[in-house]
Every structure is written in C-alpha cells, then in structure tokens.
Design a protein that fits this description.
155 residues, Small Protein B, Chain: A, 2 domains, two-stranded antiparallel ribbon
C-alpha cells in the first residue's frame, strides 16, 4: 500500500468512530497526478446526493503534461461503494453531528486508488485541548523513560 495523502488535521478536529475503504472515480490525468503525490485532503468531506456518495473539496492538482484532458482540481468525485455500505453510511450521516471525512488516499498493490473514509463526530475546543495535554504527558513519560534507560545502561 502506497499512501498518497494523509489528513492529519481530521484526526485533530474529529473523533473518528468508524473507518471505511472506498474506491474513487478518477480520470487518467488525476491518477497520474495522484501518483506524484499532488493531492490535498485538508478541507474534503463526503456528501450524499442522488443516491450516491461524493467527495467534495478534494484537491488533485492538474497533471503537468496533461493538456485539455485536465479537469477542475476541486470537482466532486464519485465514491465507489456497495449499496449495503452506502446505506449504512447514509444511516450514520443522518445522526446528529455525524459527518464523513476522507482520512487518507492510497494505492493498493493492484494499483487501485482508494480513499479511507472516517465516520466522525466533531470535537469541541476543550476536547482538542485535552488531546494535546495527553500527547504532551505521553511525550514527557517517554522522555523520562528514555533518560532512565540511558543512565542505567551507563553504569
């Protein structure tokens, strides 16, 4: 699995309750640009319309050597899911405060482009602060243990 783009900000802004793997319908020049890693998931989200799930605000830069075949970098792209998966996602989206956010984009061993979607609930400011405190505390404990191991090994 070759990871193209990772949406680290999504894990900071949302509680990820569930993850789902989905295919994504891309044009040829979009695939070439994605292979070069020219993808930004920062503000992307999934929305349901006309019985299908689409990802919006997913930025794939135009391919350098692609002339008229290049498409709008921010166009909405269809997500490829089985009907049962689609129904389950739509059911979760109808719950209050739930949203579907792309977490990362990658190529499989077979060369297929996939999108990992997270069914998320938004974090409040105090939740974000709590996560930062926990991360800092964990880092301090690791630092202390590392220093202790070095001092024990020196004796």
């Amino acid at each position: 699995m070759k990871i193209i783009a990772d949406n680290r900000k999504a894990r900071h802004d949302y509680f990820v309750l569930e993850t789902i793997e989905a295919g994504i319908a891309l044009t040829g020049t979009e695939v070439k640009s994605a292979r070069l890693g020219r993808v930004n998931l920062q503000d992307a989200y999934a929305s349901f319309s006309q019985g299908e799930l689409y990802v919006q605000h997913l930025h794939i830069s135009p391919y350098e050597q692609g002339n008229r075949m290049n498409v709008d970098p921010y166009r909405r792209r269809k997500l490829l899911l089985h009907r049962s998966e689609l129904d389950a996602i739509v059911g979760r989206m109808r719950e209050r405060g739930m949203t579907v956010v792309p977490l990362r984009m990658y190529f499989t061993e077979r060369g297929l482009c996939k999108l990992e979607l997270g069914i998320c609930r938004g974090k409040k400011l105090y939740d974000k602060r709590e996560d930062l405190k926990e991360r800092d505390a964990k880092r301090e404990m690791e630092r202390a243990l590392k220093g202790r191991r070095h001092s024990l090994g020196a004796n």
